[in-house]
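#lab-general

N.A. 3:47 PM
ok so I finally got the sequence cleaned up, no stray characters, all 349 residues accounted for. can someone with queue access submit it? mine expired

B.Y. 3:52 PM
send it over

N.A. 3:53 PM
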Amino acid sequence: MLESLGFDATFKSHSADSINSGFTVARIIEVNKNSYLVSDGIHEIVAEISGKFMFDASDATEYPTTGDWVAVQIFDNNTFAIIHKVLPRKTVLKRKEPGKRVGFQLIAANIDYGLVVQSAADCNYNLLDRYFVMLHECGIKPVSVFTKIDLLSQTELEKFKNTLPQSNNDYLLISNNTSQGVEELTKRLVPGKTYCLLGQSGVGKTSILNSLLNTNEFMVNEIHEKDGKGRHTTVSRQLIRLDSGSLFIDTPGIRELGNFGIESGLDQTFEFSDLASSCRFRDCTHVHEAGCAIIEAVRNGEIEERRYQNYLKMRKESDFFEMSYLERRKKEKKFGRMVKDYQKRKGRE
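B.Y. 4:20 PM
back already:
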């Protein structure tokens, strides 16, 4: 029954030791403030992490998140479980913590495809780039989904498609009001694969899920007449299985999308990264150096100025936050060793 939740050969090999140790394998369906909801393919069970797990975890990224596979002990006639271990992740979707704190915040784990949802009537290309960088860095296939196409005339829609960046050649156009494009999305879904809906509040993520489920199970707020936007209703990340066998995670709207340690994501998202090998200097920063192939391509109109500036901005942010993150981690590890040494000494007394 675990196969119905996306349990494939990779996870089977990772779970062998846990099963041999007497644990049951389950998947995290939902993360709540002080508990989790897990599924073993038959039952959905409220779960908590063990005390040892809590003590051994070095930071929040080691805690379970929606989509994780975990080793659990089940009690009380399948009504309660203890989580002892998170199995190795195939992918983990994460972003920089909001605000000034420099660290990672987990969004979901073991995602195959990230569906980046934006309104075609109000598309933010710079934000779209950020989502693609995050997904590429995490090893997740990004797909753009543009909603509310019923708000555009045919001429406006064609103009919109012609202005899409080259990196967004894999996209879907959808109207949740008319259901246009929903069938095309349904055809592309693969049973056993996990999809994550990403985007700001009010762009139609939950409406897409309702359309795929052919129900109004998940609440969406009314559309505002002035701007055609809905308002945020999803408050937690929940794993949902469609009748087709595909799995979906709807996420709350993301207001702030920062990241760091994204060199690979930048290279995969910005198609002009390949030009860097043609720069005169090997350590070219692509900002002011003579003989920079990327700057020359911008001047010649081969690279859009907007994308170039967005690339520089994200790279600068990444370098700054990564330096701060490494310094913080160094201090936390030192403090963690002190605490554990103290606990050991106390235990011997």
